What we know:
Blueprint: H1 9-21, H2 23-31, H3 43-55, H4 62-74, H5 83-93, H6 101-121, H7 128-144, E1 168-169, H8 174-180, E2 183-184, E3 188-194, H9 199-212, E4 217-221, H10 226-238, H11 242-246, H12 250-262, H13 265-271, E5 274-278, H14 287-301, E6 307-311, H15 325-339, E7 351-358, H16 375-378, E8 383-388, E9 396-404, E10 411-417, E11 422-424, H17 430-445
Parallel strand pairs: 3-7, 3-8, 4-5, 4-6, 6-7
Antiparallel strand pairs: 1-2, 8-9, 9-10, 10-11
Amino acid sequence: MINDIYQDGDFMELVIKHIVRDAKVFNLAKSLKIVPEDLGGVDVYRAFIQIALDVNEAPINPKLMLIKLKEAITNGKISQGQQEQIGDFHGYIYNDDPLNSDYIIEHLPKMLKARRFGAILRGDTKDADSVAASLNSLVFDFKNASSNGEEMTFNPFERPIFAEHKKTFPTGFKDIDAIIKGLGVQEYGIILGYSGGGKTAMAIHSAIEAAKLGYKVMFLSMEEPKEPIFARIYANYFHVSYSDLHHGKAIAQSEVMSKWHDMTNDEKEVMANIRVINMKDSDVETAKDIANFLDREAEKSGFIPEVVYIDQMDYMEPSKTYDAQWQKYETISFEVEELSNHLILGEHKFSVWLLHQATGKMKGHFSNAEISGFKGVIKPADIVVGIGKDSPDAKIANIFSLKSRHTKNFFVPHRANMEFMRFDTADVGGEAREQIELELVPKLTGKKNKKSKQTSFKNIPEKEELLPSPNGKFM
């Protein structure tokens, strides 16, 4: 006997609400091959399901949903006389009532199975073979669809199944990008380092390099007003002293103005890809606040970032109360991971880099064990990059992975010039990097280097294998 709830209009409206607003329910509905006709003959119900399938993402931004509904009315898929009904249903879909995804995930497969079974029995055909074929198809569909909407059971050798090619955004550090290819779309990365160790400089360098490649970048400054961030950007891009800019020296400002006037229109157009937002004195504090801000900014200015840098976690707040500081950081980290899956205006994907400050004495290298208090912070991230220096004035900054979920780990020393916010390995040839290793390995491991040509840096060729690069330097 068909359960009466699966024919109830209130229940179907609840299902539609979750399909439109909850990614897990939407993915389950897709795996069950939902079609508008599964929701019966009500045009409004079918219109919302069709829009969800067309947008192919959840949650759908309410304004985007309204745009799609207007298109459906214009195209005659919904009659003009149903506008009031559509408005009421839209209000219901996006009201503040809490969602209950687990309940819908439990009942959606049963509902669709019951409704499709009833449709087969009510069909015009009386041919037994046709009915049997339809029932077999129904059984097959539900056998292969997962009941939790996240996984499907496959034999990997029934046929090869591969992940789709995933877009990545380079970090802007050549040696590192050669290893990890950058941060994937909708991935979440953390840049972790000590105060004065180069976190913000690293993020600025990364943001500028991404902008140069044509990616739209947004730098959210939770700690400082925009002027110090601009000074860092000018120091990197124009090669002008950051200290002089920070202290407002006229000669440095004149140098920036001169170089800015010398920029071509093409250069200015490319660098328009980077935007700096001053969040210091705003009411934006939580990851959810940032998601809402990105929607508002996209609607107002049309600027939709592909990579968002947040500087930094200490100036954010979690959406719920906490007892200890580590709980605050852990909660924020998980909420930023959720932010990385937010769709700007309901359809645009992006990735997030979050800066976070390590506590204690500055070090050239640190491990997970040394920062055990950060385990909860690191857990949800796809990649965690550490930047370390032996002292504030050290010329070598080590950039290394504390966690790399999808690629191998790395440790790459860079020459760091904090006065110009730049990091460079191009001028560090094989012999120079071998010397760096001779100095660093005892500090990092407590072990002396063996007197041999074999180094612990796998990407440094032995001396006799070095060839000159096109510009005459050893790479």
